[in-house]
């Protein structure tokens, strides 16, 4: 019988880069198998891949990846939002990066893990629901790919579960500032049937941030009104 306790919790595999909050893991494949790469449908330009995945959260990790890609010679190949979140209302995420140099890809994944610990501060989880918020002053390729935000414009994100909370958050947010909606998602539109409403917004940085803060205040009042206070895995940064 195989004794799993012979495997250390301090992973030493060459593929392992590290972990972050919200059950996030970062890995690197230095030379992916050709037949597997064909099946992945991410193109065949790169054989060095960075993998970034979590069970909880999406916008925080995507914002972290966005910053990491802007700082390295890497490219976002795919972004998927699995329905997971350990039973909560939102998503997890599965992101694939590509690069020509394994050191560049590893650095991008390492940086994204570090930044996830920061951006995860805008995730709020209670027995009743789940809220998530994100902001970037300048959207890069990851945010553009995931949410359609124009490159270089400010990006704002808010997700609320149960879904009704998300819609009220969105309504109050877009009424509060001059912003444009770049993505609208519901349990049947654009999500993996998760119990949430999501909007991504763009525009002037000060207006986008103000809208996200208005959405956050609305969401927290409604979620706490359901009877429990949320846990915050990170430190709020907005």
Report what the structure shows.
The chain has a 5-stranded antiparallel beta sheet. Strands 6-7-8-10-9 form a 5-stranded antiparallel beta sheet, sandwiched between helices. 33% of the residues lie in helices and 26% in strands. It is built from 6 helices and 10 strands, in the order E-E-H-E-H-E-E-H-E-E-H-E-H-E-E-H. It starts with 15 loop residues before the first strand and ends in a 14-residue tail after the last helix. With 238 residues, it is of the alpha+beta class. The longest helix is centred in the last third of the chain and has 20 residues. Helix 2 packs across helix 3, helix 2 runs antiparallel to helix 4 and helix 5 runs antiparallel to helix 6.
Give a short overview.
The protein is an alpha+beta fold. The chain is built from six helices and ten strands, in the order ββαβαββαββαβαββα. Its main location: other.
Percent range of helical residues: 25-40%
Largest sheet: 5 strands, antiparallel
- Given helix and strand content, the structural type is alpha+beta
State the helix count.
6
Strand content: 25-35%
Please give the order of strands in the largest beta sheet: 1-2-3-5-4
Average of per-residue pLDDT values: 93
What is the H-and-E element order? EEHEHEEHEEHEHEEH
Distance between the termini: 50 Å
Shape: globular
Radius of gyration: 18 Å
**Number of separate strands:** 10
Q: What is the oligomeric state here?
A: single chain
Spans of 5+ residues with little confidence (pLDDT < 50)? none
Subcellular location: Bacterial microcompartment
Main location: other
Keywords: Bacterial microcompartment
InterPro entries: BMC_CP, BMC_dom, CcmK-like_sf, EutL_PduB, PduB
